[in-house]
């Protein structure tokens, strides 16, 4: 399998180089040259497999330059750190299915990909005899999952930018209580979009990227998205009837839902993907009316989705534009100049044939948590609640809905307590954070400050 860039200006590369490149060197995002298609019998057989076997089958279609035995070992090791025998169990509550993606070390869906990516980096760096400086942006969950994924690994420094005081307190502690010498947390006085913009700008500074061997842990890295494809198949295989379903995905950077889109293109029977957002609803507006115009980020009770500029939309647009990189370049030039992208009526129709959407406000999110808790005794985190609200409100045709549960509720204790009127018990790994020393560098949202900091700390 070879990989290309959505912007069309890199020579085809293999999987291992794609993982190491992160953001494509032409500023685009990396995609496979073609998407493998599985027939219905294969989908049915594979999706019933235990998680690690399924992950191996799917990932090996794309990671064709890693010897199969090595890949198997990497996958087995990555999911051994999950505390549930099913890795990503599916439960049914109140008529909807909940796909629990929070059984990894940091209690969010990011662990599914970042446990694997950490092991992949270690494997590739050893093979190449290289060192790496990881540079990533987080609105709260990617950061701790990435740190947990690379902690204790040789030849890796990690620099994670988060928006100062805009994550939940527990999310911040999950990152800043890690005092290992190679772990660097930077609290940026700005938004997640500012953090992501700094990271992308530094990745696009090719001499700097090369000199410091920058590695990407955000979903700009193809391996992130690929690992997330697996659980769509896994969930489908656990449904009582193997029918066309709707996946409801709480969405911020469009990585998770893009993985669902890939699963569908690979042959998984997905009727539609329901793109659920909080008040930061640029992606909902895009699906509902083709209005993709940038607004101001607002702070919500689902802070990990407080995002305007979703990285992975570019990957979807590449397909929407019939795999035409010139149209992708034009769209992003338009976005830079005018703050919006204009879509044709035909393109809008195409988007609506693939996605449903719902934008969920704070009151509805908290009410969904409260109602669900009262009716089922099950506690949703605020991000999951956004998707569950979307499924309960928008899936009106009798289809089965699978809601992706992207984080453990205890990561967002304040919001959950406001909704249900009682504190959520802390799992041991979160309770253990109380009182620990923290280390974090607070900085203005200035790429030169981040650059200088990385230069000083990288070794
Ligand atoms: C808990 C949680 N839910 C949902 C999302 C949205 O996922 P994505 O960015 O892949 O759209 C994020 C982060 O982005 C998250 O941390
Ligand atoms: N919600 C994310 C934002 C970054 O998204 P990513 O999937 O591109 O890493 C976070 O928790 O940091």
TrEMBL record:
Catalysed reaction, written as an equation: O-phospho-L-homoserine + H2O = L-threonine + phosphate
Keywords: Amino-acid biosynthesis, Lyase, Pyridoxal phosphate
GO biological process: threonine biosynthetic process
Top EC category: lyase
Superkingdom as given in the UniProt entry: Bacteria
Cofactor(s) the protein needs: pyridoxal 5'-phosphate
Pathway listed: Amino-acid biosynthesis
Pfam family, one: THR4_C
Modification sites for N6-(pyridoxal phosphate)lysine: 110
The keyword Mitochondrion is assigned to this record: no
SUPFAM superfamilies associated with the record: Tryptophan synthase beta subunit-like PLP-dependent enzymes
EC number(s) on file: 4.2.3.1
A GO term, aspect molecular function: threonine synthase activity
Domain Threonine synthase N-terminal: 2-79
NCBIfam families found in the cross-reference section: thrC (TIGR00260)
Family affiliation: Belongs to the threonine synthase family.
PANTHER family on file: THREONINE SYNTHASE FAMILY MEMBER, THREONINE SYNTHASE-LIKE 2
Name of protein: Threonine synthase
Originating gene: thrC
């Amino acid at each position: 399998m070879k990989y290309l860039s959505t912007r069309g200006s890199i020579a085809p590369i293999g999987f291992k180089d794609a993982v190491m490149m992160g953001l494509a060197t032409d500023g685009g995002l990396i995609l496979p040259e073609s998407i493998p298609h599985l027939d219905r019998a294969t989908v049915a057989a594979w999706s019933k497999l235990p998680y690690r076997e399924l992950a191996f089958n799917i990932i090996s279609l794309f990671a064709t330059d890693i010897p199969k035995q090595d890949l198997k070992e990497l996958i087995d090791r990555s999911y051994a750190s999950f505390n549930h025998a099913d890795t990503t169990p599916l439960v049914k509550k109140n008529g909807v299915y909940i796909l629990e993606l929070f059984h990894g070390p940091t209690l969010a869906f990011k662990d599914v990909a970042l446990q694997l990516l950490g092991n992949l980096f270690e494997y590739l760096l050893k093979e190449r005899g290289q060192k790496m400086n990881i540079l990533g942006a987080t609105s709260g969950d990617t950061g701790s999952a990435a740190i947990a994924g690379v902690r204790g690994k040789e030849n890796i420094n990690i620099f994670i930018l988060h928006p100062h005081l805009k994550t939940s307190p527990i999310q911040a502690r999950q990152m800043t209580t890690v005092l290992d010498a190679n772990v660097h947390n930077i609290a940026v006085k700005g938004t997640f979009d500012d953090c992501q913009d700094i990271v992308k700008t530094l990745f696009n500074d090719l001499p700097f990227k090369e000199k410091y061997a920058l590695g990407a842990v955000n979903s700009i890295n193809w391996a992130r998205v690929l690992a997330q494809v697996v659980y769509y198949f896994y969930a489908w295989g656990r449904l009582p009837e193997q029918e066309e379903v709707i996946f409801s995905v709480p969405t911020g950077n469009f990585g998770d839902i893009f993985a669902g889109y890939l699963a569908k293109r690979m042959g998984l029977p997905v009727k539609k993907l329901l793109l659920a957002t909080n008040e930061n609803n640029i992606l909902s507006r895009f699906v509902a009316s083709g209005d993709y115009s940038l607004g101001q980020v607002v702070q919500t009770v689902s802070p990990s989705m407080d995002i305007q500029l979703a990285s992975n939309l570019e990957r979807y647009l590449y397909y929407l534009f019939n795999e035409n990189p010139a149209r992708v370049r034009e769209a992003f030039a338009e976005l830079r100049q005018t703050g919006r992208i204009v879509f044709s009526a035909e393109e809008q129709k195409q988007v609506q044939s693939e996605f449903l959407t719902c934008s969920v406000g704070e009151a509805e999110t908290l009410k969904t948590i409260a109602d669900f808790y009262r009716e089922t005794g099950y506690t949703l985190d605020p991000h999951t609640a956004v998707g569950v609200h979307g499924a309960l409100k928008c899936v009106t045709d009798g289809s089965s809905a699978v809601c992706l549960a992207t984080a453990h509720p205890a990561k967002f204790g304040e919001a959950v307590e406001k909704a249900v009127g009682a504190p959520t018990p802390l799992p041991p790994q979160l309770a253990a954070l109380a009182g620990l020393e923290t280390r974090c560098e607070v900085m203005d949202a200035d790429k030169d400050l981040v650059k200088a900091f990385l230069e000083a700390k990288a070794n």
